[in-house]
Every structure is written in structure tokens, then in C-alpha cells.
Design goal:
flat; three-stranded antiparallel β-sheet; binds flavin-adenine dinucleotide
Length: 168
């Protein structure tokens, strides 16, 4: 795997970003933006992993489906309840940075050199919880169980997100 080291320095930027969805794309966007000093707000239609796990369990045990928080939707995104294979079939040098970040939050260091890196569902969930808590410490604001359904733009900038009764 090609290695490239990246450095993220906090800046004095006044920029703020809203991220819709806290799957892998949202998690890493929030992480690198926050590290660079950008004010981040995350809106996720599903629940935090701790609660999402209960909703998924209820689905398998009783067949009751939470439409917003289930195997596909919720903190961690679509693959959270999979076996946690870290395959992207990509040779992008940024891949190493992603894997390195996962090791910083508890993934085994072997993922940095294995051909078929794998973390497993249980570890993956703990990593995501740690990343969320770290982001909260950096000032990221989270809205779980909040489905974005409309946007207001002014002069090309997003100024408001509608999510049911909420205005964010
Ligand atoms: C069952 C399953 C198993 C998988 N196993 C693996 C695997 O082992 N290894 C692997 O590499 N890949 C696996 N994948 C693929 C992997 O999960 C996806 O490539 C990855 O999740 C895509 O990340 P994403 O952040 O782009 O999207 P998603 O993970 O889909 O995240 C999008 C997030 O946005 C939220 N959202 C959607 N709409 C709204 C809205 N309107 N408002 C607020 N929030 C919203 C969703 O709840 C979700 O959490 C698996 C996928 C599935 C479905």
C-alpha cells in the first residue's frame, strides 16, 4: 500500500460545515474538517450506535422495523453490522491515512500491512463511538434521529437545514 503522511493543522477559519449522514464518508469528513478547525454539525437520521444496536436487535427478534435506524441507517452507516472488512479496491494513497486513523481509535495495527484488512463488527462499533466522542470534544455538534429533508440557500451558501420540526 502506498503511504503518504498528511498533516492537519488547526486554522483560524470561521467556516462551518453541515454533514448529512454519519457513515464512513461523513465520519471521515467530520474528522478531518474538525482537525482543521472547521466548525462541524452532523445530522444523522438514525440513532447512535448504542441505541441503533437495540433497534436492530428488536428487528431480528420481533420483526419491528425502525425506518430511520436499522441495518442500513444510523451512526456508522450501512456496513456497521457487517463483518468489518476494510476493502475499497482502491490504490489511493489516502487509504493508508484512513487505516492509520482507525488504528488511532482502537483498530489492530495489523490492518496497516495486511492484504485483506479486517476489524470485525464489535471493534468497529467501539471505534466509531470513540471517534464520535473525540469529535464532540473538538466541538462537533451531533443531531441523531434527525432526517434532513430540505435546505435553504442564500447567495450560494447553505443557511438552514430542515429536518422534520427542527431547523438547524
Ligand atoms: C450489509 C452491508 C455490509 C457491508 N459490508 C462491508 C464490508 O464488510 N466492508 C466494506 O468495505 N464495505 C461494506 N459495505 C459497504 C459500505 O457499508 C459502504 O460502502 C459504506 O457504508 C458507504 O459509506 P457512506 O458514508 O458513503 O454511506 P452510508 O454508510 O450509507 O452512510 C450514509 C448515512 O447517511 C444517513 N442518512 C441518509 N439520508 C439521510 C438524511 N436525509 N438525513 C440524515 N441522515 C441521512 C444514513 O442513516 C447513513 O448513516 C457493506 C454494506 C452493507 C449494506
Amino acid at each position: 500500500m502506498k503511504k503518504k503522511e498528511y498533516e492537519f493543522k488547526p486554522t483560524n477559519t470561521k467556516k462551518s460545515v453541515v454533514i448529512i449522514g454519519f457513515g464512513p464518508s461523513g465520519i471521515f469528513a467530520a474528522y478531518y474538517l474538525s482537525k482543521s478547525g472547521v466548525k462541524v454539525t452532523v445530522i444523522e437520521r438514525g440513532e447512535k450506535i448504542e441505541d441503533r444496536t437495540q433497534s436492530v436487535r428488536k428487528f431480528f427478534e420481533k420483526g419491528s422495523l425502525n425506518f430511520n435506524s436499522n441495518i442500513s441507517f444510523g451512526e456508522g452507516g450501512a456496513g456497521t453490522f457487517s463483518d468489518g472488512k476494510l476493502t475499497s479496491r482502491s490504490k489511493d494513497p489516502r487509504l493508508y491515512e484512513v487505516l492509520k486513523t482507525l488504528t488511532e481509535f482502537g483498530a489492530p495495527s495489523e490492518i496497516l500491512h495486511k492484504k485483506m484488512p479486517h476489524v470485525g463488527t464489535d471493534i468497529l462499533r467501539e471505534i466509531i463511538i470513540k471517534m464520535r466522542k473525540h469529535l464532540e470534544d473538538l466541538g462537533t455538534k451531533f443531531y441523531f434521529s434527525t432526517k434532513a429533508d430540505d435546505f435553504v440557500f442564500k447567495d450560494g451558501k447553505l443557511i438552514k437545514v430542515f429536518a422534520g420540526e427542527k431547523r438547524i
